[in-house]
Amino acid sequence: MRSSARLESPLDQLNPGVHAIVRAMRGDRELQRRLTLLGLVRGTVVEVLQNRRHGAMLVRARDTLIALGREEARNILVETTA
Amino acid sequence: MSAKADVRVLTVALAGQPNVGKSTIFNMLTGLSQHVGNWPGKTVERREGVFSSNGALIRIVDLPGTYGLSATSEEGRIARDYLIKEPPDVVVIVANAAAIERNLYLLAELLALPTPLVLGLNMMDVATAQKLRIAPHVLEAALGLPVVPLVASRNQGVAELLATAVQLAQKPETFHPTRPEIGERHKHILAELRTLLNLRVPLPYQTEWIALKLLEGDTEISALAQAWLPDRDWRRVATLLAQHEDAVLDVAGGRYAWIVRMIAAAVERPPLGQIGLTERIDRFALHPVGGMLVLLAVFGLTFWFTFTLGTPVQAFLERHVITPLQAGAIAALAFAPPWVGQFVANGVLGGAGLVITFVPLLIFFYATFGFLEDTGYLARVAYLMDRFMHCFGLHGKSLLPLFMGFGCNVPAVMGARVIESGSGRLLTILLAPLVPCSARLAVLAFLTPLFFGRHAPWVSAALVALNIAVLAAVGIVLHHTLFRGERVAFIMELPLYHRPSPRSIALFVWNNVSAFLRKAGTMILIVATIVWVLGYFPGADIEHSYLARFGQVVEPVGSLLGLDWRLTVALLTSFVAKENAIATLGVLYKSSSGSLVEALSTFVTPASALSFMVATMLFIPCIATVAVMHQETRSWRWTCFSVALSLVIALLAGMAIYQGAIWIGGSVRHA
């Protein structure tokens, strides 16, 4: 557990091209529910396609392109895999 | 449902997530026999159609596209209310085969309800292009329900899908699907909830489903359960739910885990590194610099296309339809007192003409918009512009209704429905009237050459830019004052690019143009007629009419902007419909001298002209927009707020421009 806690970071900190696994979600339940509807739950593999450090970012999960606002992305904690 | 022995109507509900080609299938099945209405008490469209196939009467109900059955979205609430309260004989769920994992989430939710299901796997061609190999019969065996592969855009498999659905509807007892189960961690809590709910859940709800939705933290179902349960039991439920707040993620996670198991044997994925068409286009379309250039080019082309094609048609209608009709009316009514012929020709037909001549512009604009929407590009615009829209406390999605406003503000206000949060929607509605609509752009195109001659192009550009700047400024101010602290989550699927279907574009155009005709058209016609009456009576000429008297009363206000009573009246009548400004000027100035062109250049100074144009561009929304604003916000307070706001802005801006121009003119001395 200790090692995974060290590797967890908010999704908005990731660079394009990085693959990661969703480990936890913060924020209110409504936000979490909307994220789950687009396929983002604990264990989902996410690939960062665009992240310009400002404005929305673009990720791919379960063959779906998802545009995410920065605030929303910050609430998704992920563990990078590659 | 209706179940007479001989003519039994089978009801088939069509469900699916957004962007799966569901409406294509619906259109194919129902053809022209479709009926469009609204879901009771909702602003979401309800489409259904009845037809017969192989001797069976079939009613197809198109459920709104929704990612799941939670209370998060209005679409989700409508779909589940319908499925529970008026259960159809069978549900056909359409899924995008190229994103099968996410698409089956809705299936996992639907399986918690008892209605038999058929799965239509659409876009098999796209999946194949992405090297995704799917074996429908293997999936069918795993799920225990019929699976039909489709390429709806090429009409492949649609007939089979319908036949399969009808077959299942006639033998519902054969439906024994595999159903997802909840994860071990929450199994006992679900059981406890069930016990607490036992015998208290009224039909048509089912205890199992209610327990599941409670566990998911569904606010609507919580409210229902609270009403059904005695206080003591409800407190137990509430405590239990509070202890397991994380269950939302767990329940959803369980569904995805189930989906992954179900498709494991049926779907073969390509090795990593496949680059599809969408990704290749997005390298340009979403490029930080290139993407913005593409976007500007697309916007520019939209307007170029709209006005290049729309304006000649508009002129043609004016010359060859409206004018002859007016002449005909006067000739036909020659026996009656002259005002009768004038009333019909200039009042009624003049008003109708205003409405009709705008239809071509709207058709071309919405055809372009529908085309962009249908290809999947517009979702990219929302993404690209998200950062910009954040300055107003809005997110990228709000840009789409605002963009629609360039056609007509009425559909823009209605289009704000796509925004999930109430405050974001309201703010979008308040900003929509500041988008210069095609009517205002037409006024601009007509008057600037008269007023400014060869300077017209850059004056027009500056006026449009001013409008956008005011929109941005109002957005920023409202965001930091009345809407402070409001924030909307931006989460949006970018669909795959695909070839647009002429049929859905046509439908999109029809929906928007008919909304304009119904909402704006009648309103414009009525008020235009009233204004004509006020300008015609009590007789003699327009300079002594009620309208002129009113204009003379408010002239002191107008004079601050450098407007004489005629310009003031023209501005006021633009409240009816923006294009009225031209017609009114025509009537008022023609009576005082020869042509409108001569009159305007003689009587109106450049400073007044500029102030008039600025005020017209920013003036209160037209009557139709105001009516729709009230309909959508259901609040007179916000509607009046918007009217007052634009009135103040228009007057202040006009005044600033006029006084500024006088001041500059005083030091430069104009020719």
Supply the key terms:
heterodimer; A: 82 residues; alpha+beta; 6-stranded antiparallel sheet; globular; disordered N terminus; B: 671 residues; alpha/beta; 7-stranded mixed sheet; two-stranded antiparallel sheet; 10 strands; elongated
Structure description:
The complex is a heterodimer of chains A (82) and B (671). In chain A, strands 1-6-2-3-4-5 form a six-stranded antiparallel beta sheet. The longest helix of chain A has 9 residues, at 29-37. Chain A is of the alpha+beta class. Chain A is globular, with a radius of gyration of 11 Å. The model of chain A is unreliable at 1-5 (pLDDT under 50). Chain A contains three helices and six strands, in the order αββαβββαβ. Chain A has helices spanning 2-7, 29-37, 70-74; strands spanning 8-10, 19-25, 45-50, 57-61, 64-68, 76-80. In chain A, strand 3 and strand 4 (57-61) form a beta hairpin. The two termini of chain A are 19 Å apart. In chain A, 24% of the residues lie in helices and 38% in strands. Chain B is of the alpha/beta class and 671 residues long. Helices cover 63% and strands 8% of the residues of chain B. Chain B is built from 29 helices and ten strands. Chain B has helices spanning 22-30, 74-85, 100-110, 124-129, 136-143, 158-170, 184-197, 207-215, 219-228, 231-243, 247-263, 277-285, 290-332, 338-375, 377-384, 386-390, 399-404, 409-415, 422-431, 438-452, 456-480, 502-536, 546-560, 565-573, 580-590, 596-603, 606-618, 623-633, 636-668, and strands spanning 9-16, 34-38, 45-53, 56-62, 90-96, 117-122, 133-134, 147-149, 267-268, 491-494. In chain B, the strands form two sheets. Chain B has a seven-stranded mixed beta sheet with strand order 2-3-4-1-5-6-8, with helices on both faces. In chain B, strand 5, helix 3 (100-110) and strand 6 form a beta-alpha-beta unit. In chain B, helix 20 runs antiparallel to helix 27 (606-618). Mean pLDDT of chain B is 85; it is low at 1-5.
